[in-house]
């Protein structure tokens, strides 16, 4: 381990990563560089700087990555209608590759030979950080203190803090019992009271959304404008990707939208209970499907649907930075050129109701779909031939005595 | 056409199929057998018998198929978590193969050489009826009057009725402007006011569900008991498949659950707007995923997710009676043996909130998932090796200069 | 039919399309434009001009499309390792979209309102021509005489020729009994003696390849140079795509390589026996897999393998000109950037034996693969963790009593 | 390690596993049980017993597993037409789960608490053994000496042998330089001269097959009889699965059939060169596709083709004993009920030429496929409607200005 001279640490400013910073200094006798990102988690980052300085850290990076996160990670993912195991919006998963990328950039910039993170050895995040780091910088060394040290209980951590003068904020009565992660796309909760899959979370766990019960009694209508599969304006007001997400988080959360409560399958092999609030994400998935419904070709749409579970799995498992994710992204992005237009939504007490979709490039043709005179575009008699030929193989088999019942 | 002597007609008792019955008698000079099915659409069927008798029809079949429909068609489909294009619960699609099967059985029983149906030449139902019929009886002849006759406007139909003494019920002010279909799984609406994808449906279109606004202010909690992937009891009361669906339709509809409003891609090639109420279906999909989340192996679950779009497409397109659907069903059913346990749900104003899942065969292991002492089941250090080997190909590529950015 | 004034006919110069030219003139009273393409089928095309002129046709297009065919159709397809039903190299399928495209271009150029082709109503080619034409020119009219006329026997055709002074070449003893199609990629045989799937084709059916028995007793070695997935040189001699194919057809055919004898499933629903000679194709598929084996990432390669059957099916069924084929092509092409290097092959009596592959961008790393000191790139102890975590879900299930036996 | 009292060792009788036996005795102070399987590798197993006895081993299991291997592992795999990365017949992969199963059975029988194997830490076999063992016996302990000890060079091994009186057979000039594995399905070669992917293997490496050059100048014809997808007779002589394989290995190997020379992607992350002889496997894959070509429904066949790469990957990676492999197997087996009939093959100097296939359950219908009068089974005019409806979405898109070129 003596070959490590400088370590870039993904540093939140919280207790755990503060302990890690100190532990790395001691254990590796290495210079520490901290990296703290604003991904829209809604926390002040300047305290992190203060704390890092207090530990004698010289190189402190605090970056506002909100636009990059929304534009280059979240938005491409939503083009795919990605959802993991039918329920999870990948809020944590999609943030990790950006952090990994930035850790590597900073390592390159500062001449560090290692990175470190505060993810435990039982979760997915260690995998996501490290796969990304290795893919972008194959000789980087990775330090995951939770897999190495013996500070494996709250008591030992506290003792370590006391011993090393690491300040422990004693937010009386305020400390959440849950393990949480937040960014523009979501906030997550794990552990403690919700470890039992039969237990309903208490209402005060949820921090970002009103409950459907507490949401306004009047619905909110919004209109989203899409360009090439991405939202570019809300209610005709042009917005950047991060602005879109901030706006939607606010309005959807206010209307009781965005809660997920699941048991999911981790890449490292176990099932885990997780609760999530993803207000903007809920709206974006629903609306994107709606704009695609009128602008996307049927068979391209179905192929996207077949590819999606794999794509979501790749992101969940930490393979954003991989040839196979890029390959799927190329296919997905190829379909979005004409995904332009508007979707009108009604938000009401947890419901997202699509009440209109329109596009200059709509493939919906009222005349063909209905009984109106369609000027010869569709001859009903063609259907007989269509059916006859599609049935041919089935009829031949039936004539040969094959049974389907 | 002179080779057709007897025709089994899928007969609803409504105006269209009454006209068809008469038209077939005249056009084909053939004996007509009517078949009317109770699939849970919630209509009296005896009037259909009366009307058929009035047209001189001798062989009249009126069958209660609700249990068979729920047990052998709807339930197997929900084992797959099937949903078409991310939104449609396949309510009409899944009923057609049962009707096709029964038409063929009756044709065999009565010595008929043809079947007829009232589906138009622009829709999916013609395909579903006919593929099913051909697959089960390859020499059957199929008559689709809407593709043949020239009664292609409301006026011509009315004139035909008048000419042939077919009674037209004049439900003043009550006639819905929509084209509708209903069974235990759903009721659907097409045409008229909702042909424009930008137009929000009027509230009085919806017949089965309360709006979220009008739903009760107090939530309803229910517990579903699963056995091998199927619901066998609600709130500990054992129920048959059809009873399950009737119960869930009632309680979910009451709570504002089950509305879908989409533009979908028909198998015959065009996009079409459709609105649907599927109260039980909404609950069943959500709850099935929840019970699977604790009882199904991860990789089996992911494989199911990858197969699902194809499976749903097959059902939508009319290939229930096909080798490929049976093949997928075999894979799906193979996974359901241990999908046993209970799901607890909170229903509230359009929301279905999973608040608990439990199973004697749960694969969720609290000790492994969390920081508790897991008695050696999981060694965090293993994660390092897991990541290293998964990263190997990415690192080798990066060392060779491959770029992912 | 009176609205058709000018028809572009895909004209081979053979008997069938000559009859069609005459029949179209008579039946549609329309001007005929002939289009004859050199796709490498190895026939003189000037006689086609003569014949067309003799029928009074004014606009005669004879195009050498060999390079476009090889470069824009065959080569992209081989990047996907496409093969239909495990055996068929898609030789006819891949030529049809180019002909469809050119028919439409000529129709646009000459102001024609229809196209016509000589494919029958039982085959795949009608579908391929027409889907392509409709996709590229949605208002085009398509005439498929074989589906319309009553010249449905050899006798009637001959009578028509006599009546209309269409010269019938009487190549005594030379007329093949098979229905054939040829281009740079293959020559195909259908019908007659090989209709019975139990019958072995007679040796003299095969026109392009020597039999393995008759091939030289000495092997031929060749080296193929790949750039971005395409062959750009053979034995270090730079060649255009069409030159590559011509060269490989010659050398592979000489060595007894390229014969396929199968029963395949047509898109129109029936099974059909087909025999094919695809000498260059056999070599290209084998060699492309070999160069990919050292240059392509594992998971990208596996994803390609999973996509391939669908991609091949799309081409077989006539959907080259479709959003979904473009979508898959985008994914496939995305992977080929580094598919560069050389493959060395030994060709001998029907065998294609890969005897070497090398690449500056090879991902093969001898040190990591073997027992050599790998300078820490691979720590065997990592494998234990890798296995443990991959086994975790299986162990948890086994502990819960799940049985796999 | 003191908790291990008895270890079942997969024991070949060769040098490496003899060293392991001794090392385990010393290192773990545990009782050793040896298990040696006859999988058709063509070696005497009694010497293994002698050697084990010489080391003081009391419980020695020597099992003839040839029929079980062929019937329950190889045959089911060939029903899927499984092939890894387009080239590898999975000869080693498919043997490992049987060995894992038997190791666990013996551990249960003898009260052992651990198993051990001689696979290295860089290969796939360790994964296959261990995933199988854990899946079937979740609390078993696994010892992989190659990952643990420091005998990581030939010299150290030899020194260990000398020190512990382990006899080293000095087959002068006979010792192959390759790492090899053999069973009924194949023999494999890795390492040494073929580590360089550009190097052609020397002819004397291949032990099971004649070279095409050296194969007879006269072809051999054979007829395979299939029942439910499995070969049950050759040339009308009924044979057991293992007999089928032995017979085919002989006749195909004699005719120069079965050599594979590839670079493959290991599950543990690196690329590796491997050479294989799989004479029976080559024939079985080709013939199975041929019998399926006339007996299997088109869409079931295509779905099988799409599933195959995943199925092959699962077996390659060691997941035979997994819910997802069982799920795919259920789908595959579901299709084989009617895969009955005969395939006639010509074997000649490396070529397997299908020259006939026939079945009482053939779906091939000569009348429908050809120009013969098909008695109304197929109306060519239906094709127009079939094409028109399949083209509809493409035409609508083109009318809206979408470009495919």
UniProtKB/TrEMBL annotation, chains A, B, C, D:
Places the protein is found: Cytoplasm
Signal sequence segment: none
UniProt record, GO biological process: argininosuccinate metabolic process; L-arginine biosynthetic process; urea cycle
Pathway of action: Amino-acid biosynthesis; L-arginine biosynthesis; L-arginine from L-ornithine and carbamoyl phosphate: step 2/3
UniProt cross-references to SUPFAM superfamilies, sorted A to Z: Adenine nucleotide alpha hydrolases-like, Argininosuccinate synthetase, C-terminal domain
Top-level taxon: Bacteria
EC category name: ligase
Residues binding L-aspartate, per UniProt: 120, 124-125
Residues noted as binding L-citrulline in the record, renumbered to the chain: 88, 93, 124, 128, 179, 188, 264, 276
EC number: 6.3.4.5
Residue numbers binding ATP: 10-18, 37, 118
UniProt GO MF annotations: argininosuccinate synthase activity; ATP binding
InterPro entries for the chain: Arginosuc_syn_C, Arginosuc_syn_N, Arginosuc_synth, Arginosuc_synth_CS, Arginosuc_synth_type_1_subfam, AS_cat/multimer_dom_body, Rossmann-like_a/b/a_fold
Family assignment from sequence similarity: Belongs to the argininosuccinate synthase family. Type 1 subfamily.
Protein name: Argininosuccinate synthase
Lineage: Bacteria, Pseudomonadati, Pseudomonadota, Gammaproteobacteria, Oceanospirillales
